[in-house]
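Per your request, structure below.
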């Protein structure tokens, strides 16, 4: 299903024209919703600390999670105490829930579990972002909130918007859902504080982000298996844009025998992966690994990545954060 959707959104499938009337309806509904907020009929709730929204205007993976991890580390280096809120996609959460190290992906979502495992950041997940933010502020000592996704959640006021674009696929066919991948039109980029291009070429006003691969890590902490570049491996990925991961492995020199793309946020079972990998060494993304720890095999490994940004972005971002903290101090 995901492969067919990508053909419609990022290829030349004529099926997009059949879906165009639904895109018009989607545009009308979302425009009316934005209008209600502009007129004050629907209220945006402000929080007592600065809120940074990291999102996108397209459906699918663009690099939000590495960006969130990068921002957590950058803010900590400056002495700030960030916390994170997230929807927790792929799981049904009643109310809100704090995420702690060792949390299972099927309980809090794969991306929240991965972010906390990597950074130990205070984090709360739930479909109601204001409630999640309130619990985060109540239970943890944080002075900045990062919202993982939520760009279109206008019920929560935000101080800084960061939009992540896939530098390769950009805006696809440029159409709104469901004919295209856009949640909002390209005009929305002009309203964001920062637009980051994940790979590809950063265009006017955008900042380039590079994902730097780390060393392959075995899923089993006790594993002594060595992943050699000259040995054939199978690669799987259950992320928004699996081909980026597969391409990375080939650039690094791995002999990729076979690739298999699972759906984003898909829950895994041992049989699913064994049917694909057989006895071959298996490589996957860090987000996949967080869902496979309970049944990991000796020859399974994952490739983590770190986001890298320019000094110019860091300078402008930290200046804006400082200004927003001062504004909050005088307002609340």
């Amino acid at each position: 299903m995901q492969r067919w959707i990508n053909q419609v959104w990022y290829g030349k499938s004529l099926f997009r024209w059949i879906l165009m009337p639904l895109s018009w309806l989607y545009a009308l509904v979302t425009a009316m919703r934005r209008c209600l907020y502009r007129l004050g009929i629907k209220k945006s709730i402000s929080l007592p600390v600065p809120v940074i929204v990291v999102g996108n205007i397209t459906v699918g993976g663009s690099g939000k999670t590495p960006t969130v991890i990068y921002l957590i580390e950058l803010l900590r280096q400056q002495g700030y105490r960030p916390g994170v809120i997230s929807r927790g996609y792929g799981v049904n959460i009643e109310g809100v829930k704090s995420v702690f190290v060792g949390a299972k992906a099927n309980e809090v979502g794969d991306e929240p579990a991965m972010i906390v495992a990597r950074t130990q950041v205070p984090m709360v997940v739930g479909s109601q972002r204001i409630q999640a933010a309130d619990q985060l502020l109540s239970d943890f000592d944080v002075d900045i909130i990062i919202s993982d996704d939520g760009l279109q959640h206008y019920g929560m006021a935000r101080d800084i918007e960061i939009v992540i674009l896939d530098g390769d696929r950009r805006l696809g066919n440029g159409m709104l859902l469901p004919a295209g991948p856009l949640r909002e039109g390209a005009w929305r980029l002009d309203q964001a504080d920062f637009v980051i291009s994940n790979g590809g070429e950063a265009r006017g006003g955008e900042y380039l982000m590079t994902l730097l691969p780390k060393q392959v890590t075995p899923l089993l902490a006790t594993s002594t298996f060595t992943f050699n570049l000259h040995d054939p491996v199978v690669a799987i990925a259950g992320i928004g844009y699996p081909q980026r991961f597969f391409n990375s492995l080939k650039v690094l020199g791995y002999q990729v025998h076979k690739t298999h793309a699972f759906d984003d946020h898909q829950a895994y079972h041992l049989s699913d992966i064994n049917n694909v990998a057989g006895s071959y060494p298996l490589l996957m993304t860090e987000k996949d690994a967080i869902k496979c720890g309970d049944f990991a095999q000796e020859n399974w490994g994952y490739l983590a990545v770190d986001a890298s940004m320019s000094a110019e972005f860091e300078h402008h971002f930290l200046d804006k954060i400082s200004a927003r903290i001062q504004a909050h101090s005088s307002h609340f």
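The chain has two domains: 7-81+143-210+309-331, 215-303.

Regards,
D.
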